[in-house]
Write a structure and sequence with these properties.
The protein is of the alpha+beta class. Helix 3 packs antiparallel against helix 4.
Length: 677
């Protein structure tokens, strides 16, 4: 074993920061000063570097980061492919053995945590607090190894790209640490982090320690120099805990020479230190100003305090910003968005300025996560900004951040792509209907030949339409109608084909999401694919993803729970595979995963390609659907992973237990020993 690949946590400060990271080094120093730090083992950046260089992981990282730089609209997909390589590529046996041996030693004393110690983490300039991942408590070596892979993969996330101003860290390190069951836990500041006043304060809570750093805990703030009485939040600390925290604050500042932010746990009458980092903004000045930024100005947004809206920027919106730059360069229309930081007294001025940037009658205002905003007339934007001011205060409570986007009152929406023979395929739906992305609706399908001829492959019938209504949450409101056929004019189809060709020529193999109405067609989003699509139909049905697979039929007759999980967890093309802990913790998803993963070579039969099926793609040998479309999110993932899938007219006759083969020719029953569904 090389002596600098896996080292005792207590010796981490004897190695360069690039190997063990500042977090591990700080704990080693605290332990050396006689403070209680749970035992652990540091897995250094040398170990992770060797895993990458001796497997395909290194090449995947290099290739996808190069793509990320060249095609910013592919940020999400490039990062997802890196995360997938990290969590699914087998690691060299000798390197696995080193970590496994260290984990077994720690597990002999109880559960273990996996915690990041990235060399750039806990620095004097940037703390990266809450940006990287930790997992636990874990009770077996396989759990530890899997968590180590997921924590490493979390380095390649939109959250890290955003926090690091677009530059990902070059090195990764982590440590395994014995878990301490908490009676109380919190974060200790040796100086007030806001006012910078002398005297330690602490947040304190009871329960799971991960709730402390995530902000989910119901914590009280206590001024430790206030004596034995209640703190600011009415929380009374036991005398022994208060004395221990005061002592930790004094010793920590003496040891490091600057104010600290210390994560602690109180267990069985003893104080344990889990992390100590500089209070990075203790000497910084902050002078917020009311302003707004168009969505195309991504560089400025990196330095704007967006509060809870930061999550929107780090996820899909980062891609949207770059996409709008690309669309502007190609003269392809798209809807507009903006960010605003404001005080109540600034709302009228900012709303007047935004009226010159935003063009639609209605806009959506989000103060936090998707789906929690308000849809309002643009003419009433100032009123709604003022009403929503207290939803998302920033570090300075006088200010608030919001994300504002145009709402296009389109008649049609859908997807389009350029096929391998140069034909453009267009799938159209009435705008706003639920189930469009999830594959639950059959679209009207048009093709446009390279010579510009429009062909109507299929004109669908619908019995609902949607209208835009102001109010809370989602803005499209469906209403039942008599059945109607959904055709589109040739001019609109050609308009959609034109913008699709322009984007695909610039970005490569792309699937375009669009809106269309009286003002013409405009781009809503783009998803990148690994290759051009072949013709959308085959002799045996509509081919969703090519290839041949055989296995045993498993029907998933009720997709309602999976649909709901997909909407709640925002399951889509990017970031919702089996390496996504939030998705895989959902009971609705895990029930389906257990059903499909419990047998070998399963052919999943379902009504349509619900986005809730995406977590199952890596477990199934193939998929058969009763209805569906070529360009929905699940179809993209199936093609990307190389999993055969087809829409077959005979799907309703397939019963559990049947042995079948699926191919471009259709579905062949090899053995009819299935049980009635």
């Amino acid at each position: 074993m090389k002596q600098d690949r896996v080292v005792p946590l207590y010796r981490a400060d004897g190695f360069p920061t690039l190997l063990t990271g500042a977090k591990a080094q700080a704990l080693a120093r605290l332990n050396g000063a006689g403070l209680s730090v749970p035992d652990g083992v540091c897995v250094t950046s040398r170990w992770f570097g060797e895993v990458a260089s001796r497997t395909d992981i290194g090449r995947s990282i290099e290739h996808n980061l190069r793509d990320l730089s060249a095609i910013p609209t592919g940020t999400g997909r490039s990062l997802e492919l890196i995360r997938r390589a990290l969590t699914r590529t087998p690691w060299p046996d000798d390197l696995v053995a080193e970590v496994s041996e260290a984990a077994r030693r720690l597990l002999a004393a109880g559960p273990v945590m996996v915690r990041s110690s990235v060399p750039v983490e806990d620095g004097a300039g940037l703390s990266f607090a809450g940006v990287f991942e930790s997992e636990g408590p874990l009770e077996s070596v396989p759990e530890v190894l899997a968590a180590l892979g997921r924590c490493w993969a979390a380095l390649y996330s939109a959250r890290v790209v955003s926090y690091a101003r677009g530059r990902l860290p070059d090195e990764y390190a982590a440590f395994l640490q014995s878990w301490v069951r908490p009676d109380a836990h919190g974060v200790l500041f040796t100086r007030d982090p806001v006012t910078r006043a002398d005297g330690p304060i602490t947040d304190v809570a009871w329960g799971n320690t991960t709730d402390t750093t995530s902000g989910r805990a119901s914590a009280g703030r206590v001024a430790l120099t206030a004596g034995d009485g209640d703190g600011d939040s009415g929380v009374t600390l036991p005398r022994a805990l208060r004395d221990s925290l005061n002592s930790l604050a004094r010793q920590g500042e003496q040891l490091f020479g600057h104010p600290l932010d210390i994560e602690w746990v109180w267990s069985d009458g003893r104080l344990h230190t889990l992390q100590a980092r500089p209070i990075t903004h203790a000497t910084a000045t902050r002078d917020p100003a009311a302003a707004w930024w168009p969505d195309s100005d991504v560089g400025a947004l990196h330095d704007v305090d967006l509060g809870l809206c930061r999550r929107r920027f780090e996820g899909a919106l980062m891609k949207h910003i770059w996409l709008r730059r690309q669309c502007a360069a190609l003269d392809v229309p798209t809807y507009r968005e903006a960010y605003v930081v404001y005080r109540p007294e600034d709302t009228r001025r900012l709303a007047d300025e935004l009226a010159g940037h935003l063009r639609t009658e209605y806009v959506q205002v989000n103060w936090a996560a998707r789906g929690t905003g308000t849809v309002a007339p643009l003419a009433e934007l100032a009123l709604h900004l003022k009403r929503g001011h207290d939803r998302n205060p920033l570090g300075d409570p006088a200010f608030c951040a919001a994300h504002i986007g145009e709402i296009v009152p389109a008649e049609a929406s859908g997807f389009s792509a350029v096929l391998s023979d140069g034909t453009v395929v267009i799938e159209a739906f009435p705008a706003g209907l639920p189930g469009i992305k999830e594959g639950g609706l059959v679209p009207s399908v048009f093709t446009v030949t390279p010579a510009g001829q429009v062909v109507r492959e299929h004109i669908a019938t619908f019995d609902r339409r949607c209208r835009v209504e102001p109010g809370e949450g989602w803005w499209w409101h469906p209403e039942d109608t008599p059945p109607y056929t959904f055709d589109r004019p040739d001019a609109e189809v050609l308009d959609i084909a034109g913008l699709t060709r322009a984007l695909c020529e610039s970005l490569g193999e792309a699937r375009v999401e669009w809106y269309a109405g009286d003002e013409g067609a405009m781009v809503r989003d783009v998803s990148l694919e690994g290759g051009r699509l072949d013709a959308p139909s085959s002799p045996g049905g509509q081919l969703i993803s090519g290839g041949v697979a055989s296995g045993t039929v498993l029907n998933l007759p009720d997709l309602g729970d999976l649909d709901e999980a997909a909407r709640t967890l925002e399951v889509s093309v990017v970031g919702s595979g089996m390496d996504n802990a939030a998705v895989m913790a959902d009971a609705r998803i895990t029930a389906a995963v257990d059903a499909v993963g419990g047998a070998k070579d399963v052919i999943v039969v379902a009504e349509y390609p619900s986005a809730g099926l995406i977590p199952l793609v890596d477990l199934a040998a193939g998929f058969v659907f009763r209805r569906g479309n070529l360009l929905c999110h699940t179809a993209i993932v199936l093609r990307e992973r190389g999993v055969p899938a087809i829409v077959s007219p005979g799907a309703a006759r397939l019963r559990d237990g049947m042995a079948v083969e699926i191919s471009p020719a259709g579905v062949t029953v090899l053995s009819d020993r299935g049980q009635a569904c």
